[in-house]
Amino acid sequence: MTEKQKLRKQIAQEKKSYTSGQLAEWSSSLFNRLEDHPLFQSARTILMYYSLPDEVQTHDFVEKWHDRKRIVLPVVKGDDLELRYFNGKDRLRTGMFGIGEPSEEEPADENDIELAIIPGVAFDREGNRLGRGKGYYDRTLERLEKACRIGVCFSFQILDSIPTEECDRRMDEVWTEKGRVSKKQCRQ
Known about the structure:
Blueprint: H1 3-15, H2 20-34, H3 38-42, E1 45-47, H4 59-65, E2 70-77, E3 80-85, E4 92-94, E5 100-102, E6 115-119, E7 122-124, E8 129-130, H5 136-143, E9 148-152, E10 158-159, E11 173-176, E12 179-180
Parallel strand pairs: 1-2, 1-6, 6-9, 7-10, 9-11
Antiparallel strand pairs: 2-3, 4-5, 7-8, 11-12
């Protein structure tokens, strides 16, 4: 078992010690803080994700902001993520891994994305991210050169360091329910 696999297993085990209510409360706290970020305030187009039950919960946040900002969500297509505009939860379908995905076929203009809010299994304070191991976000973030990358997780998912490989994409900032925890910040 690799170091990354061990860390994924460790975090998955730790998540089981928290209730869904606690995770929802922490998610709400995280996004209440992130809403005040100057880059969030100024961004017109934001890449988000439609959360799984064990991730920072995004459903309410996406619903809250989609009338005021262009929210983009990923759709799994083979080994890649296609990015599409969110047009309401009634227009989502269940995609790969049980994730809600936009059903419209029109792709989002990736050049318009100013802010990318990215989930992770774990992060460190240097902005390194441990994903689920498929590389979907690493390949996608490589294409989003202009977007500020903000990783989101719960505070127990912050590790001292994360093993990285050349293909891993670093976040510009990392946020938990306690606020920004990364040493770096996005350029404003």
